[in-house]
Amino acid sequence: MVKNSFISIILKEQEENKENRGSVEFQVVSFTNKIRRLTSHLELHKKDYLSQRGLRKILGKRQRLLAYLSKKNRARYKELIGQLDIRERKTR
Question: Mind giving me the DSSP string for 40-82?
């Protein structure tokens, strides 16, 4: 649960700047928060297939945003990956 409290701190910092809600970092943080909530939900409800589908869609959106960020600004990408404690995407 430490990760969720850390994400809430990051979200509070991001929410202070109302202008940055459309930024890639804010969107990735909010998707990560949703992913963690859905993951904990699916641990209890293993046969909730609609939530599994929603989780896969959100994972894909976050993956595309992270790919965009890694192409545009590698330093911001590395910093965000470190803050959220998520794995770096695999390269082919």
Answer: HHHHH-TT-HHHHHHHHHHHHHHHHHHHHHHHH-HHHHHHHHH
Which letter does DSSP use for residue 92 in this model? -
In whole angstroms, give the CA distance from residue 68 to residue 70.
6
pLDDT in tens, 24-39: 999 999 999 999 999 9
pTM equals 0.78
- Structural domain including 34 reads 20-82
Q: What is the CATH number of the domain that holds 45?
A: 1.10.287.10
What's the number of domains the chain is made of?
A: 1
